[in-house]
Amino acid sequence: MKILITGGTGFIGRQLVQALGQDNQLTLLTRSAGKAHLEKEGQHKLIGNLSALSSLDGYDAVINLAGEPIADKRWTLAQKQQICHSRWGITEQLSQLIIASKQPPSVFISGSAIGIYGHHDKNAPIDEDFSLAHFSETGQEEKFAHSVCSRWEELAFNADTHTRVCIIRIGIVLGLTGGALKKMLVPFKLGGGGTIGSGTQGMSWVHQQDLISIILFLLNNPECQGIYNATAPHPVSNKEFTLALGQALHRPTILPVPAPMLSLMLGELSELLLEGQYVYPKRLLEAGFQFHYTELEDALAALFSKQAA
């Protein structure tokens, strides 16, 4: 297949390129060709911006993973604008290119995140049937992560009259080369790991290998369309996650981080750590997708055994 991938040089994108690269013709949107990290230099076409394309005729699929990392920097006004623009701008351009195509790609897979659901406790499990209208219905304040994802998805769905659109609401991706887990490892390895805030907030996770498999599954199953939660079937609390990570690293987890301290350190960004959701991949399971890692302990063990090897 001929596939256009945005975000193909990021944490997940690099793994996806490796999974697809042998048997497909890939075009990668990247701000710097030097960041491509391809195993075979020059194997895939690199483009600096989408203005180089007038349509997506000839492409079989588009996979949109582009976006400024949401948790890398404090949420200043400028950083918020960058987070939004890096997602909204590219997604809008892709939808417009699909609409402009005489023979559009057969599928458009676009990223999103479980932050769209807002904060919910363990007694309110979330699947794809959950109504996002709860913000207006309950008077709950609309959080930044929700507003980012809501507009992001809306722009992707603009193309659904011209192609099959699949939105993946991605949870906490477990991998050692990027994402949230990489940031957690340093304090844990130094014996400074501990629960965050109350420790009861949900952490809906997915192993990096399963996330790549989810994307490939949606790519190759034409009956799949709409919203899909890209999270493992067994979400855990922050306290459970902390204990499991400590055990996997053989490190103590006795230094909790109080919510006021985290809020002081990170400002509004602390919402991502102090609030959470227990999210379930109902539609993926109904479609026949099989997770390789369903339990957190197994997922962590697999990651660290590979590191040790």
The SS-based structural class is alpha/beta
Main β sheet profile: 7 strands, parallel
* pLDDT averaged residue by residue: 89
Portion of residues in helices?
25-40%
Radius of gyration: 19 Å
Low-confidence stretches: none
Oligomer: single chain
Number of helices: 11
Number of strands: 11
Question: For the terminal residues, how far apart are their CA atoms?
Answer: 34 Å
Strands across the major sheet, in which order? 3-2-1-4-5-6-10
Element string (H = helix, E = strand): EHEEEHEHHEEHEEHEEHHHHH
- Strand portion: 5-15%
Looking at the structure, what is the overall shape?
A: globular
Draw up the topology in text.
Elements: E1 2-6, H1 11-20, E2 25-29, E3 45-47, E4 61-64, H2 77-100, E5 107-113, H3 134-138, H4 144-157, E6 164-170, E7 172-174, H5 179-189, E8 202-203, E9 205-207, H6 208-220, E10 226-230, E11 236-237, H7 238-249, H8 259-266, H9 271-274, H10 282-286, H11 296-308
Summarize, please.
Helices cover 39% and strands 15% of the residues. It is α/β, with parallel strands linked by helices.
Structural features, described:
- There is one protein chain.
- This protein has 309 residues and is an alpha/beta fold.
- The chain is 39% helix and 15% strand.
- The protein has 11 helices and 11 strands.
- The chain has helices at residues 11-20, 77-100, 134-138, 144-157, 179-189, 208-220, 238-249, 259-266, 271-274, 282-286, 296-308, and strands at 2-6, 25-29, 45-47, 61-64, 107-113, 164-170, 172-174, 202-203, 205-207, 226-230, 236-237.
- The strands form 3 sheets. The chain has a 7-stranded parallel sheet with strand order 3-2-1-4-5-6-10, with helices on both faces. A two-stranded parallel ribbon has the order 7-9. It has a two-stranded antiparallel sheet with strand order 8-11.
- Helix 1 (11-20) packs across helix 6 and helix 2 packs parallel to helix 4 (144-157).
